[in-house]
């Protein structure tokens, strides 16, 4: 696998609120800084990259330095914006991730369309993202789980089925796409594994945007697991 592919291949991602207005909540996909660090460690080694920060005209910039396969140092720089929580830490994290995008890490996220959810009002008169039934999605995990199960984007430019990864949750059983072997590698999340409900290959393929062959393999693996129990 070439360096570019190693850096830009999709990784597990979550969803966060971008804005709430006019009864709608716009949500975008994201990865956190730790995932970016892990990708850099995997590709270049823990001692093969570094990040440095500097301030220019009130903006915080991050520069990520890596060593190419040909021994040439590569540097990518970008600035960040403050977050609503822990402003300084959020700004540093944002600058780090933006610089990493210039290396290709997390760039696939820009191919995922924004997901728009309904909102519901709480007793404090504020609007929060909610399910189609009007149940407020309080936490980040609840928001991500709901979108993945019910609102996953059907368009955009998805990665190939062999490369696409979905966020995994604890207690869920995951299968490696395209095989009948149980694995944690691809992190494709299936709620049917948690509640024991069978889902057809067609439903799996549509929900998780994967090939029919991979969906059939996953369904077969699930059936095999149930028999083993």
Please tell me about this protein's structure.
By secondary structure, this protein is of the alpha+beta class. It has two domains: 3-149, Enolase-like, domain 1 (2-Layer Sandwich), CATH 3.30.390; 165-229. Helices cover 32% and strands 22% of the residues. The protein has helices at 3-8, 33-44, 87-101, 140-150, 191-195, 201-208, 212-228, and strands spanning 14-21, 24-30, 49-56, 59-67, 73-79, 115-121, 127-130. It has a four-stranded antiparallel beta sheet, with helices on one face. Strands 3-4-5 form a three-stranded antiparallel beta sheet. Helix 6 (201-208) packs across helix 7. The longest helix is centred in the C-terminal third of the chain and has 17 residues, at 212-228. It is flat. It starts with a helix and ends with a helix. The model is unreliable at 155-195 (pLDDT under 50).
Write a short abstract of this structure.
By secondary structure, the chain is α+β, with helices and mostly antiparallel strands. It has helices spanning 3-8, 33-44, 87-101, 140-150, 191-195, 201-208, 212-228, and strands spanning 14-21, 24-30, 49-56, 59-67, 73-79, 115-121, 127-130. It has a four-stranded antiparallel beta sheet with strand order 1-2-6-7, with helices on one face. Strands 3-4-5 form a three-stranded antiparallel beta sheet.
